[in-house]
Amino acid sequence: MQDRFQALLKRRLQVEIESRPPLFPWETEIQEYPVEALSSLGESSVWLKQLQNLDLPATLPEEVLTALLQQCQAIAQSSLKQGVKLIRAVEQLFPEQPQTLDRIAGMVLANAGAVRSTATAPRLVQLAQGYEAANPQQKIALSMLAAQDILNTLSLTVSAQQPQQSCQWLTEIGQVQITVGYSTEPAAQLTVQAELPCGGQIQIGGADSDCSAQRSQAGSLNLTLANPQINQRYQLCVWVEASEEPLVFSLQLIDETAG
Question: Is residue 106 domain-resident?
Answer without folding.
Answer: yes
